[in-house]
Specification:
Elements (H helix, E strand, L loop, with lengths): L1 H24 L3 H5 L11 H8 L1 H6 L6 H8 L6 H9 L3 E4 L5 E7 L2 E5 L6 E5 L4 E3 L4 H15 L5 H13 L6 H10 L3 H18 L3 H11 L5 H7 L5 E7 L8 E5 L8 H6 L9 H10 L5 E2 L2 E2 L6 H13 L9 H8 L2 E7 L4 H50 L7 H18 L3 H26 L8 H23 L15 E3 L5 E3 H23 L1 H11 L1 H6 L4 H24 L10 H14 L4 H21 L4 H18 L15
Antiparallel strand pairs: 1-2, 1-5, 2-3, 3-4, 6-10, 7-10, 8-9, 11-12
């Protein structure tokens, strides 16, 4: 009974197992709608193109990649720019399971695959399931060149500009027609002008019609951009060639050359004949001497080697015996050069194109020379404004008051350090500079007043003692600055709006900070003239300068006038220090770099005359820049020559460019 019951249970269990197995094997509704692994994947047209060159893309070799790029770019599909941009940006990946290419974007720990044909995300995979395509910089450049043809007409102006930049770096003749076609539909005037200019440059280099090339050359004649010269220079480049007989008529010859001249030595001419290595007479003697055997060389006695013909015979014997390698002697060279014609030949075969390029380069060189002169003039004007700003205070203390203040440079230093201290407190550079200018005037004005009250007022009309006293004060102030700020240079940072440059073209440019200093110099010229001509202080200063006793009798306090005048000159020097510190390193010796030029500016211009100081600064600035232009590697020599010129100038015009007239001139 028990056995029968067990058999029934086992039968039921077997039947249940078979039913479960059949249910598990039956497909569900969801499974019948999903593609199975054996189902064929339908490729889009771009994916089909990529698969045709899949091996080349995966290899990523610059030597073999071009056919793959051409296949994608030449497919004519709308998705070409998308594929090339993805490929260039290293965002193209290949799925290892089926070899298909996608754009992959990382999303957390997985990657979303975007189909190149539909532009839709079609799968999400892990990094282990895909391989990144990594084009090197060379391949990226080739892709960029192919991409240019599509980007030139892109609706986005930024992409069109990027395409032009890429084309400027890697121009090719294949894109010339595309570039010309894009010009007609270009609506942005700036981009259109850039396209037209680039079209001319590419036409010059890669054009096939000489007339078009000449027209393009004439269109850019006088353009100072370096890219223009870069396109024209290869057209006039030459190389020396040798011809057996006369030069063929179809060769564009610059000039014929004669061997043995400075332009072409005999050795260089012989090297063009592809003959055996040349053996000079000295080399021949050394070679024969090294092969003397039993008093003879190649069967020729040593006593006969003084004869050139016998030396050649000895060498021929050594050469025939294989003792020495074959070489050409002087006689062999003469024989090889006989009947040969040597010429400097243009790399450009068309003579008319070459002539047009030469004329354009000549026009450019002339324009470059004129612009270099203008640039040199702007530099000289900028330097003159700096000297004038540094000397305008000295024009008051020395030119008007007659005080030789050797510490004037230290007032410039004090102004520069004042600007530095203000910038440490006020981080905003614009606000700090605007605050530093009046504060530097106040500090150096106070220092000048103190110096006049404590030292200078006891030394009027005693120039030697004044010079020695102020020189000592100069040394003391320098040491004091070193003790406070140290010997390390301190930066005085200019605001961002002064950090650029005004650029007229590729030759002429001047920094914004120098323009600001020039404007500041003009402002203080106007301020000085206003003070001296329109204020009571200026009237009293001129009165005391011309006749101290008469001014005192008229109720003017000469002591007070001298104090304020000296303080004014010192204060202006402080402002000059702030301006100079914007482009020069602030150190304790910053003022010493300008004290000599300041005195020369005042003396050359005419002592006591502000217009003379202005002209003196201009003369010294032009002179120094001119000398530096002739001798740019030695600025010390330029300063030496400048001082010599000033000494000679003073011999012929001791009172300066504008001499004082009237009673003050005789003091």
């Amino acid at each position: 009974m028990v056995k029968r019951l067990l058999l029934v249970v086992l039968a039921v269990l077997c039947l249940a197992t078979q039913v479960v197995a059949q249910d598990a094997a039956a497909p569900t509704d969801a499974e019948t709608t999903a593609p199975g692994p054996a189902e064929e994947v339908v490729l889009g047209p771009m994916q089909d193109v990529l698969q045709s060159v899949a091996d080349l893309i995966a290899e990523s070799s610059r030597r073999t990649i071009q056919p793959a790029i051409d296949a994608v770019a030449g497919s004519g599909l709308d998705t070409v720019p998308f594929v090339l941009e993805t490929w260039q940006a290293r965002d193209m990946w290949q799925r290892t399971s089926d070899g298909l290419f996608f754009k992959a974007v990382k999303s957390g720990d997985t990657y979303e695959l975007t189909d190149f044909d539909t532009g839709e995300v079609v799968a999400t995979v892990t990094k282990d399931e895909i391989d990144q395509i990594k084009p090197n910089s060379g391949i990226q450049g080739l892709i960029g060149s192919a991409l240019v043809a599509f980007q030139l007409n892109d609706p986005d102006p930024a992409k069109r500009r990027a395409a032009l930049a890429s084309l400027e770096r890697n121009a090719s003749a294949d894109l010339l027609a595309v570039l010309r076609a894009s010009i007609e539909t270009e609506e942005d005037p700036d981009i259109k002008a850039r396209k037209e200019r680039l079209e001319k440059l590419i036409t010059i280099t890669y054009g096939t019609d000489p007339a078009n090339r000449i027209a393009a050359i004439e269109a850019v004649s006088g353009d100072l951009d370096v890219s223009v010269r870069g396109a024209l220079n290869p057209l006039v480049a030459t190389r020396i060639m040798a011809f057996d007989g006369d030069v063929p008529e179809d060769v564009n010859v610059a000039r014929e050359l004669r061997p043995g001249t400075e332009a072409l030595s005999r050795e260089d001419a012989y090297a063009l004949t592809d003959g055996e290595p040349f053996l000079t007479d000295a080399d021949l003697r050394n070679l024969l001497q090294a092969n003397i055997v039993d008093g003879a060389v190649g069967g020729v006695p040593v006593s006969e080697l003084s004869d050139p013909e016998r030396r050649v015979a000895a060498f021929d014997a050594l050469e025939a015996a294989g003792t020495v390698p074959p070489a050409a002697t002087e006689e062999d060279v003469d024989a090889a050069l006989d009947g040969m014609t040597f010429a400097s030949v243009y790399a450009e075969p068309n003579a008319e194109v070459t002539e047009a390029a030469r004329a354009a380069l000549t026009a450019i060189e002339t324009k470059v020379g004129l612009n270099q002169t203008l640039d040199l003039g702007l530099d000289a004007l900028s330097l003159a404004s700096i000297y004038f700003l540094a000397a305008i205070g000295l024009a008051i203390t020395f030119g008007v008051m007659g005080v030789i203040n050797m510490a004037h440079g230290e007032f410039i230093m004090m102004g520069a350090y004042t600007g530095y201290v203000v910038q440490q407190i006020v981080p905003n550079h614009t606000a700090s500079i605007l605050l530093a200018i009046p504060l530097a005037f106040a500090v150096t004005f106070a220092a000048g007043v103190a110096m006049e009250r404590l030292v200078i007022r006891f030394l009027y009309n005693r120039p030697l003692e004044t010079l020695l006293a102020t020189f000592g004060i100069s040394i003391a102030l320098q040491q004091l600055a070193k003790n406070i700020f140290g010997t390390q240079a301190r930066p005085l940072t200019s605001p961002d709006w002064l950090g650029g440059a005004w650029t007229l073209n590729d030759v002429v440019s001047i920094s914004t900070v120098r323009i600001a200093i020039f404007v500041l110099a003009l402002i203080f010229l106007a301020v000085f003239l206003f003070i001296m001509k329109r204020t009571r202080l200026g009237l009293e200063t001129r009165a005391v300068t011309q006749n101290r006793g008469m001014a005192s009798a008229m109720g003017i306090n000469p002591e007070r006038v001298n104090m304020l005048t000296f303080g004014l000159g010192s204060g202006i020097a402080g402002i000059a220090g702030v301006a100079i510190g914007l482009y020069a390193q602030v150190t304790s010796e910053i003022g010493q770099a300008y004290i000599v030029q300041s005195f020369m500016t005042v003396v050359v211009g005419g002592v006591g005359n502000i217009w003379g100081t202005l002209l003196g600064a201009g003369l010294i600035g032009i002179l120094q820049k001119g000398i530096e232009w002739f001798n740019p590697s030695n600025t010390l020599a330029a300063q030496t020559y400048m001082i010599i010129f000033i000494i000679i100038f003073i011999q012929f015009r001791p009172r300066g460019i504008i001499a004082l007239k009237g009673r003050a001139a005789g003091d």
